[in-house]
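Below is how a single chain appears once it has passed through the pipeline. First comes the sequence as given, then the structure the pipeline wrote out for it. We keep one example in the README because the format questions we get most often are answered faster by looking than by reading.
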Amino acid sequence: MSEYIIETEACLAKGAAHLAQVEPRFAHALSLTGPLPLRRREDGFDALLSAIVSQQVSVAAAQAIWGRVQAAGLTDPAAILAADDDVLRAQGLSRPKIRYARALAGAGIDFDALRHMPSDQVVTQLIEIPGIGRWTAEVYAMFSLGRADVFAPDDLALQEAARILFDLPARPKPAAFRAMAAEWAPWRTVAANLLWAYYHVQKQKEGIA
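Resulting structure:
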């Protein structure tokens, strides 16, 4: 695998400088956002389990549930598979999330192998697991594996940021957005970081929901 890995804020700055050079709108966005924050996270089973826990609940609720899951020692596959429904439900997991957690625990993912696998193969493997959609897999590749050239066109905040920054008549649909983002290779993850940062700037200005 020869993909660039984002390890430091300097890596982000390098990508952002390239994007600003090839696309004036990115230069404008960067002038508003300032240096981009490093969003690296740990990889592994608990990172994906945390993503499942966080689905369709508020940030505060997700943090509370994940805290209970951690306190109960349910952050590895063996513990999830050994726990009965009542134990998992007591931590705040819904019936679907219990099923997804068990599917993840039983998938036998080789997380070390994922670190050396091309990003498209990482996404393809992860989305085969119930409860892990393309957005979750792409975000895992971006932030847990540090891949520099992954994009998440289904993300509504990215769509809205692009609509404003590129003066589009509407939020781009995922397929069109993915094609649009192809122009930002090999730094599509940095483009996503910049669009997220720009979204937050615009949200404060315009009250975007």
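The radius of gyration is 18 Å.

See the next section for the split statistics.
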